[in-house]
Amino acid sequence: MLNKASYERRILNEIRSLPEEALPKVIRLLSLIKDEFVAQKVNHEIVNDETNHEKTRDLLSTSRGNWAEDIIAEREDRI
Question: In degrees, to the nearest 5, what angle opens at C-alpha 54 toward C-alphas 50 and 56?
């Protein structure tokens, strides 16, 4: 496996070999790739963050009132 500097050199050489008309598309593709990795990281953090789910479950289980009815009533008030 190449190290980061080797990958960067290879990517730059590939980009330099492209015609100028291809550069806007390359930028869009790089943005899509970056967004994909950012989204994967966020999704991975959400999936692995069970503490929020556990807190919600604990809160609902210790609630003295009927939270489902409260939510329904609140929604009906908005309609």
Answer: 120
How many other β-carbons are positioned within 10 Å of the β-carbon of residue 28? 10
For the chain, percent of residues with pLDDT exceeding 70:
54
Residue type, 69: E
Quote the pTM value. Answer: 0.46
| Contacts for 15 with CB less than 8 Å, ≥ 6 apart | 23, 26
Helix (H, G, I), strand (E, B) or coil at 50: coil
Q: What is the mean pLDDT of the chain?
A: 77
Give SS3 for 49. coil
Residue 76 in tokens: 């009906």
